[in-house]
Amino acid sequence: MAYIQLEPLNEGFLSRISDLLLCRWTFRHCCQKCYESSCCQSSEDEVEILGPFPAQTPPWLMASRSSDKDGDSVHTASEVPLTPRTNSPDRRCSSSDTSKSTYSLTRRISSLESRRPSSPLIDIKPIEFGVLSAKKEPIQPSVLRRTYTPDDYFRKFEPQLYSLDSDSDDVDFLTDEEILSKYQLGMLHFSTQYDLLHNHLTVRVIEARDLPPPISHDGSRQDMAHSNPYVKICLLPDQKNSKQTGVKRKTQKPVFEERYTFEIPFLEAQRRTLLLTVVDFDKFSRHCVIGKVSVPLCEVDLVKGGHWWKALIPSSQNEVELGELLLSLNYLPSAGRLNVDVIRAKQLLQTDVSQGSDPFVKIQLVHGLKLVKTKKTSFLRGTIDPFYNESFSFKVPQEELENASLVFTVFGHNMKSSNDFIGRIVIGQYSSGPSESNHWRRMLNTHRTAVEQWHSLRSRAECDRVSPASLEVT
What we know:
- The protein is an alpha+beta fold.
- The protein is built from ten helices and 18 strands.
- The protein has helices at residues 11-40, 59-70, 72-78, 95-115, 150-155, 176-183, 266-270, 434-445, 460-466, 468-471; strands at residues 46-48, 121-123, 187-195, 200-209, 229-236, 238-244, 255-263, 273-280, 288-296, 306-311, 324-332, 337-346, 359-367, 370-376, 387-395, 404-412, 420-428, 451-456.
- A four-stranded antiparallel β-sheet has the order 7-4-3-10. The chain has a four-stranded antiparallel β-sheet with strand order 6-5-8-9, with no helix packed on it.
- The longest helix has 30 residues, at 11-40.
């Protein structure tokens, strides 16, 4: 019978295995103690973590192993040699050998503990141990929400915001019949057509019907006389380049049949809104707006064209604008001359019901509160967009310039009676508004250079209220 003879195991290898098993047992024992102390103690104590658990070998232990390989003889000298295990069951270690081995292991752990880097003190919260599952469902913190009762919901509801009887101009959800029944301002007939060959939009104002009679000045009753309506056309947001039909005298069913073209690219026309405003002409006061119609051009087929009857709705602008005036100012300090150029005006208020207006401009120099000089342009017949290009010069010394004011008044020429007032502005010491003050300031800062600017005309009452120089002229 053949016996297999086993070679005796290396004592150094068994020593390393025993050291490793003892270290793992020590790590497990320490972590168990940490867990028990953190879970059982009511106060939060600081516990020292001895190392990662489980699995990974600490860096300081790896350094210890490398040092063992370099100096195996040193370690074996301090150790008690372990008797290799044989197949004989009668082989046992004595009690003295066991005590020596335990003493050697204790010294071994002490030496490793001295070489291990100090671990930081970490405040450990209670640790939850459990089986790692494949799916982890994130738990979101519950948010306390206020529960609303039906009473709270309807208490926040504001019925007036959704009422059709509100004062707002939002009538998008009303039909033309409902608008006509609600406001009773009449209807307007018009058409649009875009010419791709010539790149212009044609607006045709055809007629209107059922216009309301004019209101008397005291507002207590309606005048029985008929209106004198006309229509202003513009493409929003540009309200400056507007068109205007002729005035139809004493009728509530005017027939206009007038066409107007706007030079505008097709893509730009689709971004505009067509605004048609029906105005009542009044020779003795400012013209009154009857109603308006607005049509976004992106909602219609401009190339195909079409015509519509639209009900008029109230306008927030109760009075029409008086027109605009283009002026140029220039001061020569060496000569002491203030030069004024009246270039042109546009969209002036119509003063004659039959042939438009015969406008002219009066220029008056006021020094302080004293009228010094008056000049005026020629009048142009039958137009509300006159071109003057006339120059005037006033003698103003430089030391008196800061006390000077220029009053520009636009009139409609009338051969049978007094001229019809259209509008006024004041530029200078007593300017009638911010735009006029800015023009005067720019002229003072740029001597010998002409400064041009458009100005919106104001009423006589508005100028008299803000400018003392307006009170000194007629």
